[in-house]
Design goal:
single chain; 540 residues; alpha/beta; Rossmann fold; 18 helices; 20 strands; flat
Length: 540
């Protein structure tokens, strides 16, 4: 892939400016940069979802791109079963049908047509061999097994899957489709440890070009041999050899060199200015010297080295509602079915004030559904959910349905709150939205920016009970750290769904509620991993 003089703006916002880059055919590169730098936008340029203002991206001939976006939308495939959807990743059925048609046509045709049909038939048979028609069952089995896709869901319709299941199934189809250029945007968001480990081994031996956006830096370290850094401040991209850890070392050296060069230049500038001041009003040879020094100063200033600025980090703060109940939440004999499929059965638990609970279980067992039932977005078939009279809930929805459905700008969206315009702008600036950002339409924000906006909205709520569904998805590491540190200090309850083990560990979780069994246990990471491995094997 070759990038030549790439330029892109959204309104007054510059995304890329005169970018030039060359990527070798089999390189595996991690794409990094702060939220809003343009990582996902870069992928959308490669796939022609959007076009640059000028410049071009040149791809190799016969390229077959496999693209996994952050947000998976399988609405148009809703009536297909999982196995039907995965198998559509290769055109084998269509090719077989055409081969059958050609065989029938060749039984009664003239000599001229026979030659044409034979040529096409040879091409079709060659394509069937290319798509491994005789090995497809074993290939699919290997992928669905590695992705921990339960056999129980293979005949379910896509529309009846959970969000996490849809992500896994879409990833599985992508791998099955045999691309020679993989573009993955946050692929580990919905993967458990076993699936993540399998993907690492798969991608390490993948024969083709690979670009990965990921805030899971251990994942990147295991796979990539290059880092493509997108600089939000300079609107450009730079390719570094090595994995993420190596990049950090190199980038730190670049920053130190930059600091030395800036200080050296500042000293030279100060020296020239002092000489010029001392020569004011002189004549003769000294006047020529003053003119020479002035020219040197102008040249220095025209080629001034810019300091590498540290990326800004959001200043997240949650407001606490000080009153509370001893039992903020109790669930009694809860039963819920979806599309005539029992999902949650006989769920019972109570939460004492201040407890931090992890809802754990494989994709599709009803973790997010349980949170939606508590938030009254769904209605149970039977049972009772009792929320304390003093319980004030702040809910982070991983699907961000409210934000994704709005057609408003950032500022318009927050004008519905009770805060003053001044308070809204001050709050948004803490979440790195200021100036022209406030006039951006929310639909044009990156997934990471939308996440920051969701947390900005939560910061306007006085709560004593946080319900968080995958809160670290799409967020850069720095923002994850800020959120973690704030939640650790939160004086109230936290009910959490998360596939991020380091985030869960750092939060000092008290208990874990295991689905589908419905058992409440003291939190133990090793015990949790044992339960999950046992469930994966037995559910399959």
């Amino acid at each position: 892939m070759i990038i030549e003089n790439l330029n892109l703006t959204f309104g007054t916002q510059v995304i890329f400016k005169n970018c030039n880059l060359r990527l070798d055919g089999n390189c595996k590169a991690g794409v990094i940069g702060v939220n809003g730098a343009g990582k996902t936008t870069f992928f959308r340029l490669i796939t022609n979802e959007i076009l640059p203002d000028s410049g071009k991206i040149i791809l190799n001939k016969n390229i077959r791109i496999g693209y996994l976006p952050q947000t998976i939308d399988l609405t148009s495939f809703g009536e297909l079963t999982v196995i039907e959807y995965i198998k559509q990743g290769r055109p084998i059925d269509k090719l077989k049908d055409r081969a059958t048609q050609l065989e029938k046509l060749m039984t009664s045709c003239n000599e001229l047509d026979m030659k044409r049909y034979l040529n096409e038939y040879g091409e079709v048979i060659g394509l069937l061999d290319f798509w491994d028609q005789y090995e497809i069952d074993s290939i699919i089995l290997k992928i669905i097994s590695g992705m921990n896709i339960s056999e129980n869901i293979l005949n379910l319709k896509i529309k009846n899957l959970s969000g996490g299941e849809k992500s896994r199934v879409a990833f599985a189809r992508l791998l099955y489709s045999k691309p020679n250029f993989l573009i993955l945007d946050e692929p580990t968001n919905h993967l458990d440890k076993e699936s993540r480990d399998w993907c690492i081994e798969y991608l390490k031996t993948y024969k083709g070009q690979l670009l990965i956006i990921s805030h899971d830096y251990q994942f990147l370290n295991s796979i990539v041999d290059k880092i493509l850094y997108i600089d939000k401040q300079k609107h450009n991209m730079t390719l570094f050899n090595g994995n993420y850890d190596h990049f950090l070392k190199i980038y730190q050296e670049i920053k130190l060199t930059n600091e030395r060069e800036v200080k050296k230049q500042e000293a030279e500038e100060s020296k020239l200015k002092e000489i010029i001041r001392s020569l004011e009003g002189v004549s003769g040879k000294r006047k020529k010297m003053a003119f020479s020094k002035q020219k040197a100063l102008e040249k220095l200033q025209a080629n001034k080295i810019e300091s590498i600025k540290e990326d800004k980090v959001a200043k997240i703060k949650f407001n606490v509602y000080n009153e509370h109940n001893k039992v903020p939440l109790a669930i009694k004999n809860l039963y819920f079915s979806y599309a005539n499929k029992p999902l949650l059965k006989n769920i019972n638990f109570t939460i004492g004030f201040g407890e931090k609970i992890l809802i754990a279980g494989k994709n599709g067992v009803g973790k997010s559904t349980l949170l939606k039932l508590i938030m009254k977005q769904l209605t149970p078939n039977t049972g009772e959910i009792v929320i304390g009279t003093k319980t004030k809930i702040a809910y982070y929805d991983q699907e961000q349905k409210e934000i994704n459905s709005t057609k408003e700008t950032i500022l318009e969206y927050f004008k519905h709150s009770n805060a003053t315009l001044k308070q809204i702008k001050a709050m948004l600036s803490r979440y790195l939205f200021y100036g022209d950002d406030l006039d951006k339409y929310i639909k044009n924000l990156s997934p990471g920016e939308k996440c920051r906006l969701s947390f900005a909205k939560l910061s306007l709520i006085d709560s004593n009970f946080m319900i968080l569904d995958e809160p670290t998805n799409h967020l850069d590491f720095q923002t994850q750290e800020v959120i973690l540190n704030n939640l650790k200090q939160f004086k109230g309850n936290i009910l959490l769904v998360s596939h991020n083990p380091n985030f869960v560990e750092g939060l000092n979780i008290d208990k874990m509620f295991i689905l589908p069994e419905g058992n409440m246990l003291n939190y133990d990471r090793k015990k949790l991993e044992e339960i999950q491995k046992y469930n994966e094997k037995n559910i399959k």
